[in-house]
Amino acid sequence: MKISFKSVYIKPNLFYTLIAISLVLLISCSEKVDENYAKEVKEWHKARIERLTKPDSWLSLAGLFWLKEGENSFGSDTSNNFVFPPNKAPGFIGKFLLEDSTVTVKINPGVEILSDGKKVDELVLRDDQSGNPNLLEYGPLSWYSIRRGEKYGIRLKNSLNPALENFEGIKTFQVSERWKIKADLIPYNPPKMIEVPSVIGTIDKEESPGALRFKFEDSEYRLDPLKSGDGYFLIFADKTSGDETYGAGRFLYIEPPDSLGNIYIDFNKAYNPPCAFSRYATCPLPPKDNFLSLAVEAGEKNYKGAH
After folding, report:
1. How does pLDDT run across 5-27, given as a tens digit for each residue?
2. Domain definitions of the chain by residue range
3. Domain spanning 58-165: which CATH class is it, in words?
């Protein structure tokens, strides 16, 4: 059979373009990552998964109930204001009473609910904003009071929650050192107050110490972090949000400056907020200036397991 070479002729410009594309793909596929750094990120993610699979983790969330002023009954019977999981709790446990920003729990006679190992009959509840909320327990269930703005609620956890027992792990992008980026902190003087919205519609005003400025592929970007201990906390979204990564953005903790004063944004350690795993979380959303106009192909991908 005779083959015509004219049919496979490639114009020189196209030929060199294809060669260039092939070289880019070859380089990207064969990127070498420092072994110690790859191990560091792997260990970080392993610890992250260990925390996420503990009996009281975000995967154990089994309910979120917003209190109305006055009495709010709760238990596993469907006639209650707040219905707990069937076969996990008594039908009628008691009532939560919300009066003038104070939440009190009153337990029905004959029902044994514990807090700090002691039986509870009536108790004024400290909420989560106190840093030490009163935890109430019955079998695999535990619950406590939370406050979001002017709203008060009850967060319920179940150590036997299906979302916890059926956890499928979290896929991540391939570790790449190009996503560990040196940044400069441009201080705000005075510190800038930024609005941080949440999935439940509240807006908190938080203090940002300065803008983190960094370059990626010759373009400059800025992000507003929050202070977190000696380091910083970022809530951000990017062009992968809603596609390869969680639609409402991701979280990232930034280590304090190193011994030379350098700050690094390590997007390989970007992780999903609790709302990616449960509809009962009350996650903050990215502030308006933290939407990046680039695709951050690093860190955790969107969780595909069922809520």
Report:
1. 344 444 445 544 444 444 444 44
2. 35-53+170-290, 58-165
3. mainly beta
